[in-house]
């Protein structure tokens, strides 16, 4: 019978030992029943049962006696084997409970601990994990061993599986006589030994006296995790905080030998040397707690500091989204190395920025940080200007895209409204409602035009105009706009010169500026619209713009209103930015001014003083071209002779509502209309050679091929066809492509029924 069987049988027998007398009693009762039973059959059954239970009881007693004798023999054998062993030995069960320990184990670890993990708790770090790992290996392979570092040196821990869930342990201790133990208790310097995890394996008597006991981990002594030799540390001692110099020696087995030296002869960090004081670079030195220890002459000038002023890091600079002291602590604790940040100073020049580079240093044993400071105001301003330009460009693209989509919607709305008006006369009840829809759609189209003006994608019709005439024609309307409390003055300069611009859009610019000036003077005042002939002999730079040398017509719109705060001057030309109350402005007035002026080749600047008023300066280059050459007239191409109301039109439009309106409008005028929802369908339609098409009416921007691309392909086989391009964008986005396509005109969206019919008629007749 194996050890495992004996162990299981012994456990089973012990569980049944309490039932021994129960079996004896039941057997006796059965025998008594056999004597008094009335029938022979019942007496036989009772006799057999009673004898069986008595036999089982006797067998159980014999088994228990045998196992007890076996256990005594086993304990005697273990005592003979391990009793004289000088190394501590343990016998444990599967749960780690101590079943036997030899005298050496009792002397070394005592007899109080019930488990082996508890017996070794103060012997080395994490004994439970080590014991479980070795026991698992021994259960699989029969034996295992491992060398562990202990507080007294090194221990070889061996374990063998005896079967039946029992394990025999043996500990061989090797106490080092070198390294940490070479007279450590005899020296006066505090000293300790720790492993790489920060667990203290040994500390001498001087260290125990200093800290008042035997600490288990390094964080109980040192507050900073990253320590370097030569640094001054603060140790919480029995008599209070003690300053000492930290020194470390690498020991065997990745252990750290740490010594503490007195620092009575050390002094606090002093000022920078004379060489650093006169360096042409701003330098500052900070202690680990953020206090300013020293600053050189350039640093004092940069931050307007007087000699001897005491400040903390956070008193000098604003945070980075987190306290700057945390940033400095990361550098001192070496979580960050040689990092640089652009910070806004709290002292010195207003609206300035400094690039601060921190580097960890140790001075007189004290860790800290050296800051190298450079003025980054110009760099930050350039970044802000670049970001502003990119933002304005992105907003312009967004505004242009939105305006294009709205123009498609407005084309469908106004077009179908025109179709409804054709079926109603003025006496109809619905006529007035339809007129209201048409008028509001036109107002929406004007608002979309302002978005296109800002994004510089509107369709302008530039011509050579005289500013004096434009302003004189506007005088009556402007006087009505400003009201009775405000005086409007127009001052014209002689020999101003003509400019090239869209007259209607230029009038819109002047009106927007005058209305803004009026709103800035609720109590009344004066608005002056001045013109001046200006010649720049060299380029003029202002507000990120460069005005080339040349002759300019200058328009100034000046008011005596409340003025614009300085922090808002950079934002006034942004779309939807307004200083007016909600409901009083759309925020598109000045952005429209900016877009029209820039699209016309001009420049716009603003000067404003709170309480004194605002002046807008508009620069337009003078156009010296003769009047007859200012707007060249293209030679009219040969006309296709088609009778009124006749002709075949191929309509290509990807927006279904616009296509439906345009198709109905042209059919009502008598034209034959072929529809296509994209360029590919249009080209497929034209593959029929028997089909005669007189005019292509096509959208410019479509999925797949755009308008100019498919028209060029179609004209290869139908060179006499004429073209009408439609788009919600400006004609400028098409001009280069359109210039290569003969017999083509441009129809901007939104357009009315009459606009479409007139354009088609002019192209065909």
- Specify Rg, calculated over alpha carbons: 50 Å
Low-confidence stretches: 1-6, 177-182, 628-643
Beta-strand content: 15-25%
User: Looking across the biggest beta sheet, what order are the strands in?
Assistant: 2-1-5-4-3
Instruction: Tell me the total number of β-strands.
Output: 29
Going by helix content, strand content and strand pairing, the class is: alpha+beta
Please tell me about this protein's structure.
It is elongated and about 135 Å long. The strands form seven sheets. A five-stranded antiparallel β-sheet has the order 2-1-5-4-3. Helix 12 runs antiparallel to helix 13 and helix 12 (377-422) packs across helix 18 (656-668). Residues 1-6, 177-182 and 628-643 have low confidence and may be disordered. It is built from 22 helices and 29 strands. It is 39% helix and 24% strand. Strand 11 (282-287) and strand 12 (292-295) form a beta hairpin. The longest helix is centred in the middle third of the chain and has 46 residues, at 377-422. It is α+β, with helices and mostly antiparallel strands and 765 residues long.
């Amino acid at each position: 019978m194996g050890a495992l069987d004996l162990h299981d049988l012994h456990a089973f027998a012990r569980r049944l030992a309490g039932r021994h007398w129960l079996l004896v009693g039941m057997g006796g009762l059965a025998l008594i029943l056999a004597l008094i039973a009335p029938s022979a059959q019942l007496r036989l059954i009772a006799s057999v049962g009673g004898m069986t239970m008595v036999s089982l009881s006797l067998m159980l007693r014999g088994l228990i006696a045998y196992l007890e004798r076996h256990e005594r023999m086993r304990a005697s054998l273990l005592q003979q084997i391990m009793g004289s062993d000088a190394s501590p030995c343990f016998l444990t069960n599967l749960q780690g409970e101590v079943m036997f320990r030899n005298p050496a184990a009792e002397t070394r670890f005592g007899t109080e601990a019930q488990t082996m993990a508890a017996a070794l708790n103060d012997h080395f770090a994490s004994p439970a994990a080590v014991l479980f790992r070795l026991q698992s290996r021994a259960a699989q392979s029969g034996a295992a061993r491992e060398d562990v570092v202990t507080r007294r040196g090194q221990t070889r821990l061996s374990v063998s599986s005896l079967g039946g869930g029992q394990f025999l342990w043996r500990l061989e201790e090797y106490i080092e006589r070198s390294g940490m133990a070479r007279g450590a208790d005899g020296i006066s310097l505090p000293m300790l030994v720790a492993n790489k995890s920060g667990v203290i394996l040994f500390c001498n008597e001087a260290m125990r006296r200093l800290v008042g006991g035997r600490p288990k981990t390094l964080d109980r002594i040192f507050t900073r995790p990253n320590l370097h030799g030569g640094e001054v540390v603060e140790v919480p001692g029995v008599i209070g905080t003690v300053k000492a110099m930290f020194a470390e020696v690498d020991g065997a087995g990745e252990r750290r030998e740490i010594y503490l030296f007195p620092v009575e002869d050390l002094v606090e960090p002093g000022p920078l040397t004379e060489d650093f004081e006169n360096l042409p670079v701003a330098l500052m030195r900070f202690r680990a707690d953020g206090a300013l220890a020293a600053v050189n002459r350039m640093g004092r000038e940069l931050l307007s500091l007087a000699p001897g002023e005491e400040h903390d890091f956070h008193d000098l600079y604003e945070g980075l989204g987190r306290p700057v002291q945390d940033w400095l602590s990361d550098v001192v604790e070496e979580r960050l190395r040689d990092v640089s940040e652009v910070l806004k100073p709290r002292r010195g020049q207003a609206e300035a920025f400094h690039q601060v580079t921190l580097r960890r240093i140790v001075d007189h044993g004290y860790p800290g940080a050296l800051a190298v400071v450079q003025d980054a105001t110009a760099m930050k301003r350039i970044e802000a200007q670049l970001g502003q330009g990119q933002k304005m460009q992105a907003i312009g693209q967004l505004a242009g895209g939105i305006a294009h989509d709205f123009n498609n919607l407005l084309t469908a709305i106004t077009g179908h409204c025109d179709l409804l008006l054709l079926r109603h006369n003025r006496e109809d009840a619905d006529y007035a409602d339809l007129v209201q829809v048409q008028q509001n759609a036109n107002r929406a189209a004007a608002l979309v035009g302002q978005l296109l003006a800002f994004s510089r994608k509107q369709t302008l019709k530039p011509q050579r105009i005289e500013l004096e005439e434009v302003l004189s024609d506007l005088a009556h309307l402007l006087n009505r706009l400003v009201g009775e409390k405000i005086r409007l003055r127009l001052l014209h300069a002689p020999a101003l010169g003509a400019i090239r611009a869209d007259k209607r859009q230029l009038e819109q610019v002047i009106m927007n500026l005058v209305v803004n000036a009026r709103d800035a003077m609720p109590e009344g005042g004066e608005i002056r619209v001045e013109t001046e002939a200006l010649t720049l002999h060299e380029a003029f730079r202002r507000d990120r713009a460069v005005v080339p040398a040349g002759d300019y017509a200058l328009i100034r719109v000046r008011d005596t209103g409340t003025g614009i705060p300085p922090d808002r001057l950079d934002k006034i030309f942004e779309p939807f930015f307004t200083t007016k109350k909600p409901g009083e402005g759309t925020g598109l007035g000045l952005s429209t001014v900016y877009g029209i002026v820039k699209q016309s080749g001009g420049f716009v600047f603003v000067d404003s003083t709170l309480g004194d008023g605002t002046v807008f300066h508009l620069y337009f280059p003078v156009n010296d071209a003769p009047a007859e050459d200012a707007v060249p007239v293209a030679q009219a191409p040969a006309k296709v002779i088609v009778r009124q109301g006749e002709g075949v039109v191929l309509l290509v439009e990807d927006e279904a509502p616009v296509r439906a309106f345009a198709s109905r409008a042209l059919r009502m005028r008598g034209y034959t209309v072929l529809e296509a929802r994209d360029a590919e369908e249009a080209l497929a339609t034209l593959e029929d050679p028997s089909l005669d098409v007189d005019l292509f009416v096509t959208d410019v921007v479509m999925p797949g091929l755009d308008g100019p691309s498919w028209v060029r392909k179609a004209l290869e086989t139908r060179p006499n066809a004429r073209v009408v391009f439609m788009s919600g964008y400006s004609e400028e986005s098409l001009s280069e492509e359109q210039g290569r396509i003969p017999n083509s005109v441009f129809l901007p969206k939104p357009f009315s029924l009459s606009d479409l019919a007139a354009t088609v008629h002019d192209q065909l007749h």
